[in-house]
Amino acid sequence: xxxxxxxxxxxxxxxxxxxxxxxxxxxxxxxxxxxxxxxxxxxxxxxxxxxxxxxxxxxxxxxxxxxxxxxxxxxxxxxxxxxxxxxxxxxxxxxxxxxxxxxxxxxxxxxxxxxxxxxxxxxxxxxxxxxxxxxxxxxxxxxxxxxxxxxxxxxxxxxxxxxxxxxxxxxxxxxxxxxxxxxxxxxxxxxxxxxxxxxxxxxxxxxxxxxxxxxxxxxxxxxxxxxxxxxxxxxxxxxxxxxxxxxxxxxxxxxxxxxxxxxxxxxxxxxxxxxxxxxxxxxxxxxxxxxxxxxxxxxxxxxxxxxxxxxxxxxxxxxxxxxxxxxxxxxxxxxxxxxxxxxxxxxxxxxxxxxxxxxxx
Length: 361
Known about the structure:
Elements: E1 5-11, E2 14-20, H1 24-42, H2 46-58, E3 65-67, H3 68-75, H4 82-99, E4 103-106, H5 110-119, E5 147-150, E6 160-165, E7 171-177, H6 179-184, E8 187-192, E9 218-226, H7 229-232, E10 242-247, E11 253-259, E12 273-282, H8 285-288, E13 291-298, E14 304-311, E15 322-329, E16 333-341, E17 349-352, E18 355-360
Helix pairs in contact: 1-4, 2-5, 3-4
């Protein structure tokens, strides 16, 4: 049962009742369980499953997700859902008071439907994309009965427990869910939207069609290779949202903080490089110095906070260490800072947390 736990005991012949408050994390899990249970009950209706898919494809906040507030607004008048919607409304209100953010359903496989729609004259169809190797091309099926998982409860290998609903409307353990399964099957992630900066609420521009390096005077950056993708952004959180800042050798800002835009995970898988192709400037040592610093954040939102960046001179140089404070959120990942020297080869690769970065002309 949800709510406060009621402990009843006897002291001699007198009955005593004592209300014990539940720890915040326990209460959050109870409320999330309510959301999971009720949307799985509603998911028996194929129109509701299609509604979730269609709303997630809209990416109203840049991700394949739909808020529970939107689910309430769309279904409050449906008498078949009245009981579930009432429980969802109560749980959402309490969760927002605790977490200060909107609970959502994130639907990874919506990306497959979205890619198919874009390839077929923007028509939204129940057809599964040809890329889905488990469903033959030309097969028409609606979104299936989903398996649900929690966003914030996963194992060290980033797999997590999946749940379905039984005939008595109780959650039933389905099995272990990993990233590949979630993108190939119907999995709903019960979690929270990422409150990113405005530039990361839209998709990033595609990388250049011809990313070959050329020698020239211009300096371009924001090029990254994720060596441990899930450590930067677990698959339960969806797309990646990087923020990039460049400083000169005196710690003054040259570029940024700039949000690159949301990028689908498939572009980072198998340690692919992603090139945001950001122009930094024409590097003259008289202007920028003998080196630059670049700093990387992966945005996850949360409460307002800040990050302090320390910038010592590179090895072989002497001089002061500069410190700069950048605004951030408490769930953001501070991936680190690198010093790029003017004498470095343009092909040099530098390391930050769980990633490599580089420049080009």
